[in-house]
Amino acid sequence: MATRTVLGSNAAAGSPAIAWIHLVWLGAGLLLGFLVPLVLADVLEVQKDVYYGIYSAFALGLFIAWARSTGQSLREMLRRRWPLAILLGLAFAGVMAAIALNEDAGSRPEGLDLVGAILWRGLLYGMADGLLLSSFPILVVFAAFAGTRMRQKLAGTLVVGLIAVLASLAMTAAYHLGYSDFRSDKLRKPVAGDLVWSAPTLLTLNPIGAPIAHAGLHVTAVVHNSDTDLFLPPHD
Q1: How far is CA 218 from CA 96, 121, 143, 151, in A?
Q2: pLDDT tens per residue across span 173-187
C-alpha cells in the first residue's frame, strides 16, 4: 500500500524511479488531454453539455487516479495554504473575467437557462479546465522533484516552478489542439491565458486555486457572450 504524502515529500520521493512514475502520468495526461476533445467533440460531435459532463469527470478522475496511485494526500493538498489559494484564485478570477469582458458582447441564455449555464458551463466546466490544464501538470512536476536537492534551495525551487509552468503550457496547448478551430493562430490566446489562471496553484501548490481562477473566465464568458468563438469550446 502506498505511503500517503504531500507532493511526494517523503524521503523515498526523491528517487529517480518515483520521479519517472510522475512523468509517465504527466505524459498520459498530455495524450489523453488531447484525445478527449479530439474524439468526443471533434470526431463524434457529442452534444456540448453532455461533453462538458464527460470531460469534467475525466479531469477529476485523472487527478484522483494520479494522486492515489502515487501516494499523494488529497486532503493535505487541499489544506495546503488554502486561505491564500482561495484568495489568489478569486483575485485571478477577476483578472480572467476582465479578459473575457474585453471580447465582443453577444447573446446569452435567460432565466433558469442562464442559471444552469453558469453552474454547468461556467463553474463545472471552468473548474475542470483549471484542474486539468494547470493543477494537474503543476503538482505532478513538483511531486516528481520532491525530496531532491533542487527543492532544498530557492534557486532550484524556482527552476522546478519554471518546469511546472512549461508543463502547464504544454497541457493547455495539447488540450486545445484537440479542437479543430484551435489548430491555428488562435491557440496563442489560451496558452497566454494559462500564465494567468495557473498562478494561484503555482504560488501555493494547492489544486483549488487555478480552478477558481479559470471558473471566473468561464462564468464571465457565459454571461457576456455564450456564443463566443474563443472561450467555452467546442464551438459550432
Answers
A1: 9, 7, 29, 34
A2: 999 999 999 999 999
How is residue 182 written as a grid cell? 484551435
Give the pTM: 0.91
C-beta separation of 175 from 37 below 8 A: yes
CA distance 108 to 22: 41
Residues 6+ apart with CB under 8 A from 196: 92, 95, 96, 99, 213
Residue 88: its H or E element? helix 82-101
How large is the angle between the packed helices 82-101 and 209-224, nearest 10 degrees? 30
Output the CA torsion 146→149→153→156 (10° steps).
-80
pLDDT digits (tens, 9 = 90+) for 7-36: 644 444 556 668 889 999 999 999 999 999
- pLDDT-derived band at 107, boundaries 50, 70, 90: confident
Contacts with 27 (C-beta within 8 Å, 6 or more apart), sequence order: none
User: Contact 8/73 with Cβ under 8 angstroms?
Assistant: no
